[in-house]
Design a protein that fits this description.
By secondary structure, this protein is an alpha/beta fold. The chain has helices at residues 6-13, 53-60, 80-87, 111-123, 135-167, 181-189, 194-225, 231-238, 245-254, 264-270, 295-311, 313-326, 329-349, and strands spanning 22-28, 32-39, 42-50, 67-73, 92-95, 275-280, 283-289. Helix 8 (231-238) packs across helix 9 (245-254).
Length: 358
């Protein structure tokens, strides 16, 4: 891996002052960071650095007086680098990969090209920043996301068990569609060849372990919801029909720093409940939902909306009106979920809001 030395960096950054405009794009990976520097609209340097904040700071040092912005795309490396750069006084941001412009007709792709493009787009003001959570906000969100991960693993094991029964011509016990205790007990007593019995027992043991793990995580989420930093907001959201403690915690931890959203449209787009609209002249076509945000949060908002429609007369009237207008129950419930997300956001940002509950 080629590294940029301090000597070569100083020679290229010599003469940069406060009147200059320096933009830096980084392409961050586990073991290396590709960097590109633009000064006053001209690319002056690219290099490959070790994946350490100290190496990035040393690379940036010759440009500090004119440094306007350092950016890199959100990814698996998290927010540790941007936090370290900010603590050192470097103006750094993380940008949304899905919002980065793509040059039409360009098929080549490399880390070096990516960092150069980020620096160029940032200089032109074309990049969309993402809110960087604090260490505590990210840790709290991870607890709730862990619950989603355990649930996904449990669902896969259940699918494996059903596929196992189908493959070997074994009849599903009564109640297995709901995974009742009696149906699981029937699986444990089911007669079959010894080798098949061994395989099924392993799957059932995996399922039991995941059930126990899910119980532990649920307790952790409940304890987190009663901490001083979350209890008041969670209680406020749970007053809404259909919103339980898990949904409330999911919303609070995913919609961190709720004040950063300027209007309800941004909230709907963030959680992935905004429709794709195509309009030209007199023609308007509403497409599918924009794929954005956390899928599990979107699903929980839809589930909460079904409960809400059954309990709240205003939400029920809204749902019926949307069914008449769209002719589709699924579209109507998504519309209710979008209104619910906006309502919860308003409760977070303006606790005394008297907005309609629909």
């Amino acid at each position: 891996m080629r590294q940029v030395t301090k000597k070569s960096a100083r020679s290229k950054g010599a003469g940069v002052g406060r009147g200059d405009a320096v933009y830096v794009g980084l392409d961050v990976h586990k073991r290396s960071i590709h960097a590109a520097v633009r000064v006053n609209g001209r690319e002056v340097e690219t290099g490959v650095l070790p994946a350490r904040a100290g190496a990035v700071l040393a690379f940036l040092e010759p440009y500090r007086l004119g440094l306007k912005q350092v950016v890199y795309e959100a990814g698996p490396t998290g927010y540790g680098l941007v936090r370290r750069l900010r603590r050192a006084g470097v103006p750094a941001d993380v940008v949304a990969p899905g919002k980065t412009p793509r040059t039409p007709g360009v098929s080549s792709k490399s880390d070096r090209l990516d960092c150069r493009a980020l620096a160029r787009f940032d200089e032109a003001g074309l990049l969309k920043r993402v809110a960087v959570p604090t260490v505590r906000e990210e840790a709290d969100r991870q607890v709730v996301r862990l619950r989603d991960q355990v649930m996904n693993k449990r669902r896969r094991v259940k699918q494996q068990i059903k596929s196992f029964l189908l493959q070997h011509g074994l009849r599903e016990p009564r109640g297995l569609s709901d995974w009742t205790r009696a149906s699981v007990a029937a699986l444990e007593r089911m007669k079959m060849a010894a080798t098949l019995r061994f395989c099924l027992d392993i799957l059932l043991r995996d399922l039991a372990n995941l059930e126990a793990m899910l119980g532990e995580v649920n307790q952790a989420v409940r304890r987190l919801s009663r901490t001083r930093r979350h209890a008041r907001r969670v209680d406020r959201l749970m007053k809404e029909p259909g919103v339980g403690p898990v949904t409330a915690m999911q919303f609070v931890t995913e919609i961190y720093q709720a004040q950063r959203f300027r209007n309800p449209c941004e909230v709907a787009a963030y959680v992935g409940l905004a429709p794709r609209v195509r309009q030209s002249g007199e023609r308007r076509r509403d497409g599918p939902l924009l794929k954005a945000g956390r899928g599990r949060l979107r699903a929980m908002l839809v589930e909460a909306s079904w409960v809400r429609v059954g309990r709240d007369p205003v939400a029920q009237a809204t749902y019926r009106r949307l069914v008449r207008n769209t002719g589709c129950a699924n579209k109507a419930i998504v519309g209710v979920a979008r209104r619910l997300a906006i309502r919860l956001w308003r409760l977070l940002t303006c606790p005394q809001t008297d907005a309609p509950a629909a």
